[in-house]
Model the fold of this input.
Amino acid sequence: MKNICVRFLHLLKNIGTDVLFLYKNFFHWNISKFLILIASFVVGLLLSLPFFILLLILALIDPIEWSKVMFSDINIYMSIAQYIAIHPFYLLAEFILFVIWVALLFLWMSYHIILESNLYLHYFKKEKLPVKKNFYFDASKIYTYFGILSWLLAYLMLPILVLLWVFIVLFIGFKFFFLPEILLSVILFIALAICAVWFLYLSYRISFAYLVFVDQVDENEPQKSRSYVQKSLALTSWKVFFKFFSIIIIFTILLAPINLIGANMENNINEIRNYFWYKSGQVQIVDESDQFEYEYLRWLFSEKTDDELISDLQTLYFQQVVYTLLFFLLCSWVLTMIMTSFYKRALVMQWSKVKKEDKKEKKNEKLKNIKEEKSTKKKDKTDKKKK
Done:
């Protein structure tokens, strides 16, 4: 037990040292982050552009006057509802294209994970990757990335499909076999808990696939996308899961005060904004909870005038911009460095150790077999001489 704690603290110390290396190279780190964001946005925009062009063409040829909808005196949702009744096809088609475009834009923007992984693997080696030499628009890397992403989504669909199957079976049991509702609720809750744990554990097991890919990118023979996911599954296990989970919890606690500052700022902005919305009638008081919130906000800001609240809101907006900028410069993507360090120091080292032990065992077994063969041959020769 003592040795386990010592090893864990040693690992934690090394990961902390790797994180500190980011701040020692503060300007290089942030310039690289900025370029990665721009490159991933451009990749996402280019790959989702066909859907955006279709959406734009449809918006130009449809009979809906969008300027009147956006700047109408009546509620925008009521305006859209009226147009849905008149032109359901156009609005439905535009909505579907918009959802596909936004989904693909954000999905393909996630290519920044590969660019981050490459940057942080160099940082782990105490090297600074030249800002121009990342895989910004490398077609083969983009293709492999989306291959890996497809496999990750396929793996993560397993617990969801199982839960869906359980739900269908329970629905059939309730509808046609009149099983007790309490029993079905208990079974559904247990199934939901199991599938949630399975989903989280599976997410951990496959989360290192991108690092595996970037780490092996210099190998001569390119591998199939699935092989990187399988390697991630092979590297991870329940034994190191608790170690990984503990490290994430420790660094989350360290970052918690910074996150609380941002959350408190957002809460203050929402309170002032909601107060003005209730007061002006932009948000209608529908039920008791709305009335209670409005009364609470009136009491909270009873000692301040509207001009003072507007000034406070402007100050909070400025502080939020400063906070967001500082958070990006100081805290964003630190988790990737933690994962990279854990991958190299805990997973890869353990894998190498296991491989060495396997080689040693195979070598010993081979030597043993050779000795046995020699002994058998010697015995056969002795028997022949006796005859």
Observations:
- Residues 54 and 97 are 8 Å apart (CA to CA).
